Amino acid sequence: MTETLHRIVLASRPEHKPGLDNFRMEESALPEPAAGQFLARTLWLSLDPYMRGRMSAARSYAKPVEVGATMEGACVAEVVTSRHPGFAAGDIVLAQLGWASHGISDGAGVRKIDPAAAPVTTALGVLGMPGLTAWVGLNDIAGARAGETIVVSAATGAVGSLVGQLARRKGMRVIGIAGGAEKCAYAVAELGYDICLDHHGADARRLGAQIAEAAPNGVDAYFENVGGTVLEAVLPAMNTHGRIALCGMIAWYSGAPAALPAPAIWGAILRQRLRVQGFIIFDHWNRLPAFLAEVAPLVKDGSIRYRETVAEGLDAAPAAFLRLLEGGNFGKQLVRVG
Ligand SMILES: NC(=O)c1ccc[n+]([C@@H]2O[C@H](COP(=O)([O-])OP(=O)(O)OC[C@H]3O[C@@H](n4cnc5c(N)ncnc54)[C@H](OP(=O)(O)O)[C@@H]3O)[C@@H](O)[C@H]2O)c1
Questions:
Q1: 239: which of 70, 291, 311, 313 is 20 to 30 A away, CA to CA?
Q2: Pocket flag, ligand 1, residue 246 (CB < 6 Å)
Q3: Domain 129-281 classified CATH 3.30.190.20?
Q4: pTM
Q5: Residues of the chain where predicted confidence (pLDDT) is lower than 50
Q6: Atom 41 of ligand 1, residue of closest alpha carbon
Q7: What is the three-class DSSP state of 106?
Q8: Could you tell me the fold of the domain covering 4-125+307-336?
């Protein structure tokens, strides 16, 4: 065990696109747990698009990371030393230790993980926050129904890959949108999408025509992960009284150089009488047991597939995060820290 704590802090706030200079690695002595705390070492760190929001001071649903503070993030970690009655050395836990090699916790919000039940990384992906987001968004927000047509953007990502598979299992026609031929081929062959359209290099008009062709009965539900050109292409294909589960808008997280004009968005929502519902998964943690009861067995028996992109070592986290924002990940983006 290293005796040094390594952590990546927010060095400065990006104005638009973040860069490596917005992050800094810092080292300090390993902290000692006080009574009621434990020290854990990070095995896996999850990188997620929401972290871009935490780098900004703009108003959001959660507080920003302060400049000089450790970047926030969920980790799978192993308890090293415990002075907490509920945790023992060797326990594997899901904890918000941030972009750090180790962390101290008082156990609040920490969940023990059974490594025998599923690979521990699934607690950060298909059986973790992104998986729950997919399940809640599809069922509770989009109101998915058999026989309908749904479009899923970022179709092979941590959230989208599960949305697509669950929608298919419900008997929906499932149209994916992803970046690049390899992701699109995977979406159809492995995830069961009926069709997957490549948004790379496509303008909204061409992509819109492809969506209209892929959805001869129109689009009843849109699982929105990206915004930008993709939203512009999907909106005209939405059926009257269609529903949009607004999960994310990653294309705009670093600014909106080619923002879709508000009249175009509002006009489509009004004319097509769409129901648009944004949701943040924090409000839906009570759905975790029901989600796990349905999806964990499907992951275990292989009926639900998932894919991971792994960056090696904590110092690789900033570059991996920047790649994630540009679509460089294929499935759930992780960092192997320990
Ligand atoms: N509401 C919530 O509580 C909640 C919770 C979790 C995640 N989310 C949101 O859900 C979305 C997906 O998250 P995730 O963790 O599953 O990430 P992910 O899909 O694994 O990775 C992000 C993907 O977004 C796509 N992308 C990036 N820039 C794009 C652009 N300009 N235009 C179109 N696509 C672009 C890329 O896929 P392609 O290469 O296929 O383009 C990239 O791989 C994000 O917007 C995230 O913020 C929301």
A1: 291
A2: no
A3: no
A4: 0.97
A5: 1
A6: 179
A7: coil
A8: Quinone Oxidoreductase; Chain A, domain 1 (3.90.180)
